[in-house]
Every structure is written in C-alpha cells, then in structure tokens.
C-alpha cells in the first residue's frame, strides 16, 4: 500500500517562469530604453502589486504612490523638450504595457495624464502654452485629464458635442457636461473640448479645475471595472476661461482631439495587451501550483490548451502593435490602422481574460488571485476611446470607400 508521502506529487525542480513576452519584443529596444522598461516593471511589481487589490475593492486611488511614481520620470514620456523625458514610440508603448501588466487602472491614470492631457497641449497648444504647462505636468506638480465624452454624446463626438463655448471679449463661456473623465475628481487641469457657437467647430480649452468658478466634478460611483482610476462627471455652468487657455496651436476643429486619439487609440492596444499578459502570467503561475486529482493542473491537456491559446492571442496582438509603432515612427499610421489595432486587441483580450478566469475555476472570481481584476477591467477597455463597433466602421470606410456612419 502506498504511503501518504508517496502519493503526494513532488513539484519539478525548476519550472519555466511565467513570461508573456514569448517573442521577446522588449529586446528590440536599445539598452538604455530597455533599462527604463525594467525599472517600470520592478516598480509595478514591488510598489503597486502589493496594494492594488485593496484599492480596487475599495474603489480608491493609491495617492500614496504618486511621489514614487514621479521618481520614475515617465510622465510625458515620448514628448521631447519641455522637461519631458522623451523616448521612442516603442518605449512609450512598452512602458504602458508594463504598467497594465500589473494593473489596468493605474495604466489608465498614466495614459490619461501623459497620452491625452499632455499630448493635447503638445499637439494643439502654442509654444507659450507648452512652456507654461508641460514642465509642471512632467514633474507631476499638475495632473491632467481629457474631457471629450458627454452624458449624451460618446461615439458621435465629432459632430454632436453639446458642450458649448461662446466668446466674450478675452474670455470664453463654457456650458455643458462631460462624463467618464478619468482623473477628473482630483486632478488639477482639464482639457475640455467644446463646440464654438460662432463657427460650430470643436475647440480645446485648458481649464484649471480648482480655481475656475462654475466648474464642478462628481465622482462616478458603483463601477464594476477600472475601479482604481477615478472617473468623474464634469458640470460647467457659465464657466469662464481666459482666451490664453484656449488651445491655439492646432486647427481649432475636431481634427485636434482626433489626432490625439489616433495615437492613444493604438496605445490602448498596448494597454489591453498588457492586461492579457498579466492575466496569462497569473493563470500560468496558478496552474503550476494548483493541485487537483493528485496532480498540478498545469500538466492537464485542457489547461495547457487554454494557456497556449491565450499566449497565441497575446503574440498576435504584440505583432500587430509592433508594426503599428513602426508606422507611427515613420509618420504613416492612419486612423483606420489605429482603429483596427484597438478593435482587434480588445476583442482578443476578452477571450484571453475569460480563459484565464476559466483556468482558476472558482478562484477566478476572487480579486485576491488578480485575474478577476483583469477580467472585469477588460470590459471597460473594450468600450472606451471608441467602441469595438465604431472602430470597425472606421476600418470599413477605409477599405470600401463608403461611410456607414449615421
């Protein structure tokens, strides 16, 4: 008769460590930029990972991390000059991927401040505005948000913004509401996009949240996803903004926010791929340790098939994203290419995180095991910065020559 000791399986002496960078995309960076990515990964694993589940459950933002985040020197990454750290488009992408690999909400906070708020000023601001705002934002003395979506206007923002801007001498009067604005409940400045009642064009404004009369923010409660990032509903009632705070370096049309969104849209692809990587790596680690029927479940055929399919999705997304970065670097990335990246990667992510949850069984719905957080957060990313369906219509117009928009 076998003894209890003989029945208990012994773990292999050495198991492959979970690593979702199967095709070694990080190695395509130069040594200096690769060191930055490693620094970000170490920060996320040692500082953010130990506390993020608690904040996710409590629907709170880890403000205690802001001083150490500042020391990473990645606010404004990809922007050259103005106190920003610069860096290649691939570095910007892989930094976002590494942040999201631990937590998507923290990556959203980073992306809203750096990729949306700071890029809006960089792309559509005057030289004077860049000199005034970008250095303190890079130093994290000022944190920003990007206010485009409205309670009644999401996908139709290009033609139907209800927030209005009316010029009155050297000031503008803003009236309207914005919704789902990440960082809004606590940040310092908002990049508000409003329709000029005089020419019906969309214009951008830098609004100082805490000192502008008529500007208020209500935190959106009871979310089931992206619970760490704080979303707000902004209300502007006869909110006066100086003409000096109107973004005057762009075209003064919807083309300005559209240019910002082109870059961040495929950036969302990197973010959601980071989420896939985090879900996969946590599921793999769990499978290597979990005992069932006297064996570690990583040795089961069905579990290995799920893990292999997850990794295939991740590599497919990474490959598409790598090419998108090449096109961006060459100045050739189109709206349709950015759109298909966002649509494809978020669609594949839904599959990946669902399979990761499946690997964990019942533990897959418990936040303690991390996968549940990725599972829930992916649903939000599937819709934000342009829904899956709208992205496909952008692609459809490009490939057919016909617009299917209403």
Question: What's the short version?
Answer:
The chain is α+β, with helices and mostly antiparallel strands and 406 residues long.
Protein described:
With 406 residues, the protein is of the alpha+beta class. It folds into three domains: 25-138, Acyl-CoA dehydrogenase/oxidase, N-terminal domain (Butyryl-Coa Dehydrogenase, subunit A, domain 1), CATH 1.10.540.10; 144-245, Butyryl-CoA Dehydrogenase, subunit A, domain 2; 255-400, Butyryl-CoA Dehydrogenase, subunit A, domain 3, CATH 1.20.140. The chain is 50% helix and 14% strand. It is built from twelve helices and nine strands. The strands form two sheets. Strands 1, 2, 3, 4, 5, 6 and 7 form a seven-stranded mixed β-sheet that branches. A two-stranded antiparallel sheet has the order 8-9. A hairpin with a 2-residue loop joins strand 2 (164-168) and strand 3 (171-182). Helix 2 (31-58) packs parallel to helix 4 (89-102), helix 8 runs antiparallel to helix 11 and helix 9 packs antiparallel against helix 10. The longest helix is centred in the C-terminal third of the chain and has 35 residues, at 255-289. The protein starts with a helix and ends in a 6-residue tail after the last helix. Its cofactor is FAD.
Overall residue-averaged pLDDT value: 92
Instruction: Give me the CATH superfamily of the largest domain.
Output: Butyryl-CoA Dehydrogenase, subunit A, domain 3
**Counting H and I runs of at least 4 residues, what is the number of helices?**
12
> How many beta-strand runs?
9
CATH class of the largest domain: Mainly Alpha
- Radius of gyration over all CA atoms, rounded: 22 Å
How many independent structural domains? 3
What proportion of the residues is helical, as a percent range? 40-55%
The largest β sheet comes out as:
7 strands, mixed
CATH topology label of the largest domain? Butyryl-CoA Dehydrogenase, subunit A, domain 3
CATH structural architecture of the largest domain: Up-down Bundle
Which outline best applies?
globular
User: How much beta, percentage-wise?
Assistant: 5-15%
Q: How far do the termini sit from each other?
A: 74 Å
Based on helices, strands and strand pairing, what is the structural class? Answer: alpha+beta
Low-confidence stretches: 1-7
Order of helices and strands: HHHHHHEHEEEEEEHEEHHHH
Domain Acyl-CoA dehydrogenase/oxidase N-terminal: 31-141
Domain Acyl-CoA dehydrogenase/oxidase C-terminal: 261-399
Cofactor: FAD
Keywords: FAD, Flavoprotein, Oxidoreductase
């Amino acid at each position: 008769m076998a003894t209890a000791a003989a029945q208990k399986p012994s773990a292999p002496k050495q198991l492959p460590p979970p690593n979702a960078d199967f095709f070694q995309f990080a190695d395509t960076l130069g040594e200096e930029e690769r060191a930055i990515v490693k620094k970000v990964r170490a920060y996320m694993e040692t500082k953010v990972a130990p506390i993020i589940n608690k904040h996710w459950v409590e629907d709170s933002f880890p403000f205690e991390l802001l001083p150490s985040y500042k020391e990473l020197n990645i606010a404004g990454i990809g922007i050259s000059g103005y106190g920003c750290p610069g860096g290649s488009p691939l570095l910007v992408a892989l930094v976002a991927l590494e942040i999201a690999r631990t937590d998507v909400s923290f990556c959203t906070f980073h992306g809203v401040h750096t990729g949306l708020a700071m890029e809006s000023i960089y792309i559509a601001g005057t030289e004077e505005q860049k000199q005034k705002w970008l250095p303190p934002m890079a130093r994290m003395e000022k944190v920003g948000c990007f206010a485009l979506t409205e309670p009644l206007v999401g996908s139709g923002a290009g033609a139907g913004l209800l927030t209005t801007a009316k010029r009155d001498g050297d000031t503008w009067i803003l009236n309207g509401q914005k919704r789902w604005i990440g960082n809004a409940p606590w940040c310092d400045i908002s990049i508000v996009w409003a329709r000029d009642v005089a020419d019906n064009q969309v214009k951008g404004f830098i609004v100082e949240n805490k000192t502008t009369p008529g500007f208020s923010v209500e935190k959106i409660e009871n979310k089931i996803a992206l619970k760490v990032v704080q979303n707000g509903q902004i209300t502007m009632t006869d909110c006066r903004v100086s003409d000096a705070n109107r973004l005057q370096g762009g075209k003064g049309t919807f083309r300005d926010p559209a240019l910002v969104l082109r870059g961040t849209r495929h950036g969302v692809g990197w973010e959601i791929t980071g989420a896939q990587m985090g879900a996969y790596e946590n599921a793999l680690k769990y499978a290597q340790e979990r005992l069932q029927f006297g064996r570690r479940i990583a040795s089961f055929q069905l579990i290995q098939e799920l893990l292999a399919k997850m990794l295939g999705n991740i590599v497919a997304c990474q490959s598409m994203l790598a090419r998108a970065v090449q096109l961006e670097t060459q100045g050739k990335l189109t709206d349709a290419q950015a759109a298909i990246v966002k649509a494809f990667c978020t669609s594949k992510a839904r599959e990946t995180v669902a399979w990761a949850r499946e690997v964990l069984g019942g533990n897959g719905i418990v936040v303690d095991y991390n996968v549940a957080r990725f599972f829930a957060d992916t649903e939000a990313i599937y819709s934000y910065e342009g829904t899956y369906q709208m992205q496909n219509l952008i692609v459809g117009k490009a490939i057919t020559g016909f617009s299917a928009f209403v």
